[in-house]
Amino acid sequence: MYLSRSRSGMETAMGSASFARQALTVVLALACVTLCAGSQGDFSNSLHFVRKAPKGHLPATHTRLARHPSAGPSAPEQIHISLAGPGAVAVNWVTPGPETSSSHSILHRLSRHLPIQLRHARLGRRLCPGTSIVQYGLESGVYTSQARGAVPTCYSVGDYDSGVLHEVVIGLDGPLPASTDIFYRVSGSGAGVWSEEYAFTTPPPVGPASLPYRLGVIGDLGQTEDSLETLEHMVASGPASVMLVGDLSYADGDHERWDTWNRMVSPLTSRSVWMFTEGNHERERASGVPSWLAYTSRFHLPHAASGSGSPLYYSYDLAGAHVVMLGSYTDHGADSDQAEWLAADLAAVDRARTPWLLVNMHAPFYSSNLNHLREAEAMRVSMETLLRQHAVDVVFAGHVHAYERSYHVYDGAPDPCAPIYINIGDGGNREGPDTHWLPRPDWSAWREPSFGHGTLDLLNSTHAQWRWVRNKDSVTAVDAADAVTLVRSECHMDRGAVDRAAAAA
Ligand SMILES: [Fe+2]
């Protein structure tokens, strides 16, 4: 405890000095942005950098975004699987809502003519008629098991009525076998209506013996031509599962865009686990609309399985990693529920079982891009010490639409016991890349405002291979734009020993 307070005091002093340094840096950078405009070399460490202009959403009629023309009126769509606890996987999907049926369509059309205040009275999530069933098995077409979900839900915002939102967790009545192909189909909105068959491979057993394991990492995806390029490259990379660090659909209040985004990613999310944390674009802003309505209604966020009281932050174990999803836009002060939960979650990690400790958040602690500069400073001050104390290996973030990788850094200074920070908010959203860099800080190892994605190969308990793949490079390109081997430092190893000793005591 004494050491913690001492470190906190030192942190404050160092933080003040760091703030002064960064303030001077910002002034210099603003001058540079003015004076160096057009100088590509100042904005990137890639000699091949070509700035891409922002693009809008793909049209909702695009073949990847529109409801499949051959799907019947009762067919399920927008299928997504995620981890739901040890040996369990959640399946989420959407079927046409009751408002589209004849018995509801008149009320639906009439509601469009109501004053906005009355239309908002229809807001919120509610139970909706329907049945949620997943049938699955170990052979294609042979569904030996079946699981039912609770009564599905739906929600309305203004003129928008969602489809019926289904969720079923499979593996609750006995864990799913590890590293096994599961063939499944989900129920439609009519009796005897089923989806086509999908398949996914269950995660391996948790532990270093399950390494190597490839994680995909992506941020700020959106639904543009660039988003599709990112997904195409991601498929070529072949990750076993994906972490998305927030800013998913860029629906921004247009809830039809949640449907189009889910259709766009469904060919991937129906076949491998995709785990999310939320960004600012998941936050509902319309007056009277509950926050995070679409995000928390459409996806399974396994907070209860990790002891979190909020779907906005949670954790899970996967292969040889403990993965933490933090919430940048919920209370994150030092005395907050999130900070308290984080401290307990990190303290409970068994590094012998999950040697790799990964943290995801949306707004970055470290970025040398002018856009969104220091937006996460309060969260950094309240949580960075925890991440260092518990020897977190890598912190992924998005928000800034550019790629940047740091060296090991703590409070702005080199520290081999601190995490490295990787910003990967370059998934391809409609706002375009963030191209204005500050002069490069000492902690910044690599940066470039190009769209792309990353993969993290956890090779064994001590070594991992990180790769950043640009969309501008061929899908079949052998070399990543940025590739680095990560070796867990001695203090990370020591931390593992401390954890094991504490667990054994
Ligand atoms: Fe963002």
UniProtKB/TrEMBL annotation:
Domain of life of the organism encoding this protein: Eukaryota
Ranges for domain Purple acid phosphatase C-terminal: 418-479
A single MF term (Gene Ontology): metal ion binding
Keywords: Glycoprotein, Hydrolase, Signal
Calcineurin-like phosphoesterase domain ranges (all copies): 214-403
InterPro entries: Calcineurin-like_PHP, Metallo-depent_PP-like, MPP_PAP, PAPs-like, PAPs_C, PAPs_N, Purple_acid_Pase-like_N
Cited SUPFAM superfamilies: Metallo-dependent phosphatases, Purple acid phosphatase, N-terminal domain
EC number: 3.1.3.2
Signal sequence extent: 1-38
Record-annotated Purple acid phosphatase N-terminal domain positions: 76-202
Reaction(s) the record says it catalyses: a phosphate monoester + H2O = an alcohol + phosphate
Protein family: Belongs to the metallophosphoesterase superfamily. Purple acid phosphatase family.
Protein name in UniProt: Purple acid phosphatase
Organism classification: Eukaryota, Viridiplantae, Chlorophyta, core chlorophytes, Trebouxiophyceae
